[in-house]
From TrEMBL, chains A, B:
Segments passing through the bilayer: none
Family annotation (NCBIfam families): arcC, PRK12352.1
GO CC, alphabetical: cytosol
Domain of life: Bacteria
UniProt name for this protein: Carbamate kinase
Keyword flag Transferase: yes
The keyword Nucleotide-binding appears for this protein: no
Family in the record: Belongs to the carbamate kinase family.
Catalytic function, reaction form: hydrogencarbonate + NH4(+) + ATP = carbamoyl phosphate + ADP + H2O + H(+)
GO MF term set: carbamate kinase activity
Organism of origin: Psychracetigena formicireducens
């Protein structure tokens, strides 16, 4: 049914919104977004391409959770899924406004629309047996154990700095809203979606139940790109090219990779779990299911990369 | 272009999500939503009708702002427009989940999708000269004046209980995303939109700028219903019928009203500004621009009302 030959899914990197030394103000977020959007605008404005923009929410959902916990004696606290939904609203709005501003400037009538997005995960995902993602504030052991009892949390010690809550990071299976997103892009709208990897939901007793978990945004974007049969899946990050032997004297910046090479390097531990690893895994996930291409690069290098002069291209080969 | 003869815009009342004695927990919000949705489900599931659900965000945006202020020494605070966007994410998610659950139960494949929605207001709206809507926490006079200086707020004394920030409540002019909403409903999706009246934006220097203001959700819903050329605009509230001489011995519950009668009663001050007033004004706004009908009733009375046995119907007459 879906013919997505002109569709591109664009996963913005965390640094597109908040950078390492930022405090987390709205001003910083708008400034970073504007810089990123200006880099990629010549691409976003192409009339022959349907565009979906996805984004992370790491620092923002951490802040939402922290606000909720700091205020919990005054206002009933929110669960993690609801905090994630909040950040989809706020970040979605900021991205929408930023792209729309550039469109207005050059008289492009395209509407930018942000969709609250849920991501289905399996109830039997092994991640639920072993939650590994630290979220929210640090607590003393006593406080942490009290909260674990009161709120049903799982808490663990985090690198000797205190106790924190941990949640699972299950594999995304389906973007619940993908048909709606498909219909929107095929009417020429630019869609912002799957923020923070989507709000995690499971199917239980024939209904969707929101759960407290985090989903990798690149993996979720790969699922969306596959469902939309996107022609290209572009992952923006802090570096212009993927490296092997990263940080070593024999580091090699890769100009292209086949699916098989990507699988080999990933299984050999070439890509760190917290950063390039999930991006390569996302590329593999998408390439195994489609005929498209993946580009991993920075926003600054996007244009040279599209001309084949920068970035790392990955294809089935 | 737009033929909305089968479209219904459904404005949920504040009590559909939080009720007077609720503390504001997520559990309460889901419980209230479930009750409302079950009342209106036989309507939402009709295949011959395109449905858009809109909702308020009064208590929730107040809480978002309060969380942001309580935490402001730890996390940079959010502006009111971003708080509004957050609540569109969280409430949109909760409504979506609640309706979707009912659809799953009876095997309806319709996707429920929540759209982050911006509402255009005019920069020269007289409301900007005289902000009247109290928002956020109470402060002492000293604190309030300090905040006014630091943050550019306007503060006023609120009914002798302390000082609060005031923001303008301008008239909604356009729902920025209405074409996207139109496309979604015409593909059979049920859309949740225009939460809290939409995030207010103004056109300035050829761009959309988010502003700190509040928009009446019924008035914004009337604008959306007009743009979608909706056949019906249903406003759910706490009472099953609109009254004149409300609370007096000669109170009359109205079964129907013409546009002209509604205008007359409104101008005679029959409807209180904070409650029924904006609902009647919204009905008038919609009826002046379309050929549709308005129904004002409670969720419990929706079905008798649709059969003409309850509710207040308003039409051009």
């Amino acid at each position: 049914m879906i013919n997505g030959k002109n569709t591109v899914v664009f996963a913005l990197g965390g640094n597109a919104i908040l950078q390492t030394n930022d405090r987390g103000t709205l001003k910083e977020q708008y400034r970073n977004l504007k810089e990123t959007v200006q880099h990629i605008m010549p691409f976003l404005m192409r009339e022959d391409v349907n565009v979906v923009v996805t984004h992370g929410n790491g620092p923002q959902v951490g802040n939402a959770l922290l606000r909720s916990e700091i205020s919990k004696d005054t206002i009933p606290p929110h669960t993690l899924d609801v905090c994630g939904a909040e950040t989809q609203g706020s970040i979605g709005y900021m991205i929408t406004q930023t792209i729309q501003e550039e469109f207005y400037r050059i008289n492009i009538p395209r509407v930018v629309v942000s969709v609250v997005t849920r991501t289905l995960v399996n109830t039997d995902d092994p991640a639920f047996q072993n939650p590994t993602k630290y979220i929210g504030p640090f607590y003393s052991e006593v406080e942490a154990k009290k909260l674990a009892e009161e709120r049903g949390w799982i808490v663990k010690e985090d690198s000797g700095r205190g106790f924190r809550r941990v949640v699972p990071s299950p594999m995304p299976q389906e973007i619940i809203e993908y048909k709606a997103i498909y219909d929107l892009i095929n009417h020429g709208h630019l869609v912002v979606s799957t923020g923070g990897g989507g709000i995690p939901v499971v199917k239980r007793d024939q209904r969707l139940e929101g759960i407290e978990a985090v989903i990798d945004k690149d993996l979720a974007s790969a699922v969306l790109a596959t469902e939309l049969k996107a022609r290209q899946f572009i992952i923006l990050t802090g570096v212009s090219r993927v490296s092997i032997n990263f940080g070593k004297p024999d580091e090699i910046k890769l100009t292209s990779l086949t699916l098989e090479e990507a699988q080999k390097h990933l299984s050999e531990g070439q890509f760190p779990p917290g950063s390039m690893g999930p991006k390569i895994a996302s590329a593999i996930k998408y390439l195994e299911a489609t005929d498209g291409d993946v580009l991993i690069t920075s926003s600054e290098a996007l244009f040279p990369a599209l001309k084949g002069e920068d970035g790392t291209w990955i294809s089935r080969g």
